[in-house]
Structure to design on (407 residues):
C-alpha cells in the first residue's frame, strides 16, 4: 500500500482567543515544541500539506515554504488527515495505522485523525464537508485528545514538556565546560551548541530535566528549576528565577520570576515582575514591573472571557494568569488580574489594574480605550524586527490591518 500523504489541518473549531489571531492552532507552542513539530515527530514523517483558515494562508505559506498550504486541487492518492489541535502524543500508533476509510474521533465526535481518499480529504480539511464521509469507520478515543481552549495548553504542559525534553537530542551538560555553575538533581540537564551558562548560575534538576537550546545565554545569579526549556538564542538576564514547567521560546529576553508559563518567541520580559500560569505570544514587550496575578484571593476557579462577543468561561483552574496575543506592549508597573486576555497590537498604559479583556489594536490609558493606529504599530514593528535581523512581511502587515475595527 502506498503511504498516504500527511495533511495537518486547523479546523477552526477550537477557541484560543488572541493566541490564534496570527497563527494556526498547530503553530502554538504546547511544550518545548510547537504542536506542528510534535505531530511530525510522533508520526515519524514530515507534513506534505497544511490546511489553515483562509485569512492565515499567506503568513503560513511564508513560514513553511517547502510545504503545500491550502492547495486548490486535491493531492493525488490517499491522505492521512491529522487535526492540528492534537493535544499530545497519545494515540500516535493508532493514528499511524489508520487505513483508508478509517478515523479516530473523540467521544464528542470531534475528529482527531482520518485516512480518506483524495477529494474527500481535500473537502474535509478545507471545512467543506461538515462530517466525515459515510465510508469512514470511526474508532472513539477516551479523554480529551484535542485542545479546545488556551488553558488546555497549560493543563497538558507538564506532560508535554516532559515528553519533549525526553526526546531532546541536545548534548548533556558538562560541568567542566561551564565553570562556576551549580547543578544538582538526578534529571538530565542538556545544553545546546554555542549556549553559554555563566558562573553563579544554579540549575535545579531535582524535579525534572532542564534544556538550554543552541545559542542561549544564562546570565549570572539566575536559577533554572526543571522541568523547563530555554529556546534558541534566548537570553536569561541576571537574577532571574525560572520555575517549574516554564517554556521560553526562541529569541526571547527574560528577567524577573516566571512559573508554569509558555512564551512563544521573540518576546521581551527583561525586567523584574511576576508571570505565572500564563500564555504569551510573539513580539510582546512587558515593561518593567509588569506583574500578573494567577490566583484569586478566594482560591476559586478562574473565569476567562476570550472574546468581546463570548461569555466568560470557567477554566476549572485555580491558577490561571494572563493570555496575551502578539505585538502587545505594557508600560512599567502594569498589573494584570487573574484570567486577563489581551488581544494583538494592544498598548497597556494604565496606573490601576489593566482591563480584564483588551480588544485588538487598543491603546489603554486611565482615560479608557482609544484605537491604536495600525500603521503606527507596523512602523514600530519594522524598527523592532530590524534589530533582530527579521522582517515584517506584507502578509503579516495585512493581517495586522485586519484587526482594525475588531475592538
Amino acid at each position: 500500500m502506498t503511504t498516504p500523504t500527511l495533511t495537518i489541518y486547523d479546523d477552526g473549531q477550537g477557541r484560543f482567543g488572541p493566541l490564534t489571531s496570527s497563527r494556526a492552532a498547530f503553530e502554538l507552542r504546547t511544550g518545548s515544541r510547537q504542536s506542528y513539530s510534535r505531530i511530525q515527530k510522533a508520526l515519524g514523517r514530515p507534513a506534505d500539506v497544511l490546511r489553515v483558515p483562509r485569512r492565515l494562508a499567506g503568513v503560513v505559506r511564508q513560514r513553511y515554504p517547502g510545504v503545500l498550504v491550502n492547495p486548490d486541487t486535491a493531492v493525488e492518492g490517499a491522505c492521512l488527515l491529522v487535526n492540528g489541535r492534537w493535544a499530545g502524543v497519545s494515540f500516535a500508533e493508532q493514528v499511524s495505522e489508520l487505513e483508508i476509510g478509517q478515523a479516530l474521533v473523540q467521544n464528542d465526535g470531534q475528529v482527531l485523525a482520518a485516512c480518506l481518499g483524495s477529494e474527500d480529504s481535500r473537502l474535509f480539511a478545507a471545512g467543506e464537508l461538515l462530517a466525515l464521509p459515510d465510508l469512514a469507520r470511526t474508532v472513539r478515543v477516551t479523554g480529551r485528545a484535542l485542545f479546545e481552549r488556551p488553558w488546555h495548553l497549560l493543563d497538558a504542559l507538564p506532560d508535554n514538556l516532559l515528553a519533549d525534553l525526553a526526546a531532546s537530542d541536545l548534548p548533556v551538560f558538562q560541568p567542566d565546560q561551564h565553570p562556576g555553575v551549580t547543578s544538582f538533581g538526578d534529571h538530565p540537564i542538556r545544553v545546546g551548541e554555542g549556549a553559554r551558562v555563566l558562573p553563579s548560575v544554579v540549575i535545579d534538576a531535582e524535579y525534572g530535566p532542564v534544556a538550554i537550546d543552541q545559542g542561549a545565554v544564562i546570565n549570572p545569579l539566575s536559577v533554572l528549576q526543571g522541568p523547563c526549556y530555554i529556546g534558541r538564542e534566548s537570553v536569561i538576564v541576571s537574577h532571574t528565577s525560572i520555575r517549574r514547567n516554564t517554556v521560553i521560546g526562541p529569541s526571547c529576553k527574560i528577567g524577573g520570576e516566571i512559573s508554569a508559563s509558555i512564551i512563544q518567541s521573540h518576546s521581551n520580559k527583561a525586567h523584574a515582575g511576576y508571570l505565572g500560569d500564563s500564555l504569551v505570544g510573539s513580539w510582546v514587550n512587558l515593561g518593567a514591573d509588569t506583574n500578573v496575578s494567577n490566583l484569586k484571593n478566594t482560591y476559586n476557579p478562574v473565569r476567562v472571557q476570550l472574546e468581546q462577543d463570548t461569555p466568560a468561561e470557567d477554566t476549572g483552574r485555580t491558577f490561571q494568569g494572563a493570555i496575551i496575543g502578539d505585538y502587545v506592549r505594557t508600560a512599567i508597573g502594569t498589573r494584570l488580574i487573574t484570567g486577563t486576555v489581551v488581544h494583538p497590537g494592544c498598548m497597556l498604559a494604565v496606573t490601576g489594574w489593566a482591563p480584564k479583556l483588551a480588544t485588538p489594536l487598543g491603546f489603554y490609558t486611565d482615560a479608557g480605550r482609544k484605537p491604536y493606529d495600525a500603521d503606527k504599530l507596523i512602523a514600530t514593528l519594522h524598527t523592532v524586527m530590524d534589530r533582530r535581523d527579521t522582517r515584517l512581511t506584507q502578509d503579516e502587515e495585512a493581517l495586522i490591518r485586519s484587526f482594525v475595527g475588531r475592538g
Remarks:
- The chain has two domains: 5-148, 152-401.
